[in-house]
Amino acid sequence: MVLIRSSSYQSKKCWIEIWSIDGGRIGVSTMHKTETPHMGTAITGMIGRARQQIVQMKGYSSARSLSGDEETLVFLDANECAHEPFIGARKLARYSTQQPRELQRAFCQWLDVSSRNLTITRGADEAIDCLMRGFCEPGVDNVVICPPTFAMYAQSAMLQGVDIRQAPLTNDFGLDPVAIAAAMDEATKLVFVCSPNNPTGNVMNANDITNLCTTCDSRALVVVDETYIEYAIDAGDAASLIPELERFANLVVLRTLSKSHAAAGLRCGCLVAASDVTSLMRKVLAPYPVPQPVTSAALTILANDNQRRLSAKRAETIARRDEVMGKLAKIKDIIHVWPSDANFILIEAHDAAALCQRALKGGVVLRNQSHQSGVGQAVRISIGSEAEMVQLLAALRGEKVASKAQNRRYEIVRNTNETSIAVAIDLDRTGPISIDTGIGFYDHMLDQIAKHAGFALTLECDGDLKIDPHHSIEDCAIALGQAICGALGNKRGIGRYGFCLPMDEALVTVALDLSGRFHFDFKADFPQPMVGDLPCDMIDHVFRSLAENMRANLHIAVTGENCHHMVEACFKGFGRALRQAINQDGSEMPSTKGTL
Ligand SMILES: *Cc1c(COP(=O)(O)O)cnc(C)c1O
User: Fold this and answer.
1) How far, in Å, is the centroid of ligand 1 from the Cα of 287?
2) Residue 177 exposed, middle or buried by CB count within 10 Å (0-12, 13-18, 19+)
């Protein structure tokens, strides 16, 4: 049994959809042939190759997206709650627009494109799926993929009932224009190019791609997946193809925050293309695809200073990759290590499954890629942290590997209107120590803490020093306390307590318990209001903020004559006490309660 539903479309037009009684659509809508295309605009560029039902379809539009200024209007159009949901987050009660404007602006600034040429998606995966749904008629059209390559292209095609044609890469994993041309026919709508390619790791030759755009002309879109391109850009080995959009109406570039911006869990990326393609994608997308917390996190990630930090991290990853490649090449049973322009490496082994098994025995999970055509017995390895790479190499060498060492590193970025602070700490390394708060004497004092506690610390603060140093000093202490607390993790095996006594003529008593509970007691009578550029009345605040954010019990008492000595004694003494308390020996919980 079927229900037939008809709807009017721009007064004169209509379409018919056939629905089953249980709500599934079993017939596709058809338009009356006499109609002019949507909004009367001529079909240009690639849109002639899109699914005509979608071209003709009016995209979902909310009253919100049709209205004016979001800041000044009262929205009683979408049945939302007028209050927030009591979880401390803001702007959750309301639907955001389909393409949140602020986020669009940030993406456009990053990629240097106009908002007409960009559609935000839930990661590159959703962009692939939208292209499939927007361009490929199920059961009729086909797409071309170049294996070995990313599995989602075929997966998405399958889900849409679209035929998959293969044009394998050449022996050195380059595009094969002859094979692509041979795989294409009149019903080919999309050609997928992954650069750098997953799993082979290499960037594709840019001329090969632009030539492909010329060959495909107005028949098929060339979809270039640049998920890993930032690594190649940072290494100076390649450029994005985005500027080529000016020359090619059939070029689509996919970008994502997942792999290059440490945000795979965020599900945020975009599709960059000619404006007729991006508008079609917005019709295919869900009405509200980008959750508000995603927008707000993505904005923070895309901010310039954060991009700078991420780029520095990528440089570290690239350096580590190149180092690990050399070491992998020497491991028994590894035949070949392919060059990489990304944050992973593909290796050829005698027996890929056995190699993965050996890694697993050492606690490391790798991806066997032998199912891919053209790679033989291959394994893909992501570049992890330094400790993870040490563990991997030991595992592959068949050395005995200690069970996953508790990682006592922590990074935190804390932004307020007053300060912007980045802290990275590693409790199990003694350096490097690099501190820049903009307050010279305070830098010297925080340096004392790290030096005497014996940990690596990088702390940068960009604060409102023009007003006074108060915010910077206090916020750095808060962030440092949070970083120490985060790095301590479950606190297994730590000394927990620390104490310390004299320093020159100044006598400081520091007693510390990393108990998980906050208590603070400070006894000091500094003879001067300032040491260097550090106000002495801030010393109390610093240690209070540290103790509170470390969730520690801290008592400090200092006496003396020289103010500089007294202050320095507090910081050194605290560092020494901290050294004892964080020192890890075994894995026993230092509490009869079993938790701290
Ligand atoms: C991981 C990966 C993706 C998925 O990206 P998301 O933005 O997380 O959806 C897309 N393309 C390639 C080549 C990938 O390796």
Assistant:
1) 22
2) middle
Task: State phi, psi for 299 to the nearest 5 degrees.
Answer: -65, -40
Cα–Cα distance measured from residue 262 to residue 256, given in angstroms and rounded to the nearest whole number = 10
CA of 248 to the centre of ligand 1 (A): 24
Pairing of strands 251-256, 221-225: parallel
Question: Is residue 261 within 6 Å of ligand 1 at its C-beta?
Answer: no
What domains sit in the chain, N to C, each tagged with a CATH number? 37-62+92-302 (3.40.640.10), 308-396 (3.90.1150.10), 409-582 (3.30.230.40)
Q: C-alpha angle 282/288/292, rounded to 5°? A: 125
Q: Encode burial over 122-140: b for 16+ CB neighbours within 10 A, e otherwise.
A: bbbbbbbbbbbbbbbbeee
Tokens of 393: 């190499």
The Cβ of residue 21 has, within 10 Å, a number of other Cβ atoms equal to 8
Residue 122 near ligand 1, beta carbon < 6 Å: no
> Ligand 1 centroid vs 124 CA: distance in angstroms?
5
Find the mean pLDDT for residues 172-197.
Answer: 97
pLDDT reported for residue 230: 97
- Residue appearing with tokens 């041979």: 182
Highest mean pLDDT among 64-78, 80-94, 288-302, 359-373: 288-302
User: Does the beta carbon of 258 sit less than 6 angstroms from any atom of ligand 1?
Assistant: yes
